[in-house]
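Schema walk-through. Below, the input block comes first and the output block second. Nothing else is stored per chain. Lengths vary across the set, and this one has 163 residues.
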Amino acid sequence: MPGDDRPRTTLAVLSTVTAQILRGEAIRQYGAICVRDPHDSVEILLITSRDSGRWVIPKGWGMATKKPHHVAAQEAWEEAGVIGKVKKKPIGFYTCIKRLRNGDLVPALVQVHLLTVLENSQKFPERGQRIQRWFSPHDAASMVDEPELGSLLKRASLFVKQA
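--- output ---
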């Protein structure tokens, strides 16, 4: 749009919150890379965000009564209706930008856990609010905006083999 000088790329947006990151002011979130292995070909589930429609993985805020890997599994259920076996040890981290309800942008450090999908339910809390689709690791990586997340998605087959 003419006159719109907002940063367009994820890296450009991240650069606007670099000072916050350096001061350790990033918020923490926990996410799940949800995988299935039909016929030895790993597929990754991506969902759209509710606000922008971008392709993302299920993720959310920490919960006082749950460990990080259980939070990741809970978010996968709430946002995508998947149930599975979640790995306790994180497979990596990525940085993204979160827009708060007041409009402020804050950096978020997302701790990512691998979740092997065992069941995909048709009834879940955010059903109808998001689109979900299965992708190859390479295609999933090309669909997300965050380069660090893309790198994790490309390596998903290796994480599955190590599980």
